[in-house]
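Lab notebook page, bench 4
Experiment: in silico fold of construct C2
Operator: M.H.
Input chain length: 119 residues
Purpose: comparison with the prior construct
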Amino acid sequence: QVQLVESGGGLVQPGGSLRLSCAASGGIFSYMIMGWYRQAPGKQRDLVARITSAGNTYYADSVKGRFTISRDNAKNTVALQMNSLKPEDTAVYYCNADRPTGRGNQNYWGQGTQVTVSS
């Protein structure tokens, strides 16, 4: 019952920056664990960053110090600020919501947004 819509992807040169946003509808946003994943062609979908309801964050080693995840519970949005981008960051980026329920955790995905880092 949760819908996620990503935006902000595009083409950027190495060393540049992009900010991805994800808008959520349905459910109680503040209770959800939000995350960003990415998937390059022919590769698995990997976790990039997560942020819990309490504001605890996790980052993949490949993006530590370069990416920052944040959330705005008043606007039901989660963002990923990406700095010092590298060609290997090129992928489709997906917003993810993990919602605990009495029936166990439910997981939701956005449609994805393309990020291309190239000169």
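Observations: The mean pLDDT is 96. Residues 35 and 50 are 4 Å apart (CA to CA).
Next step: discuss at group meeting.
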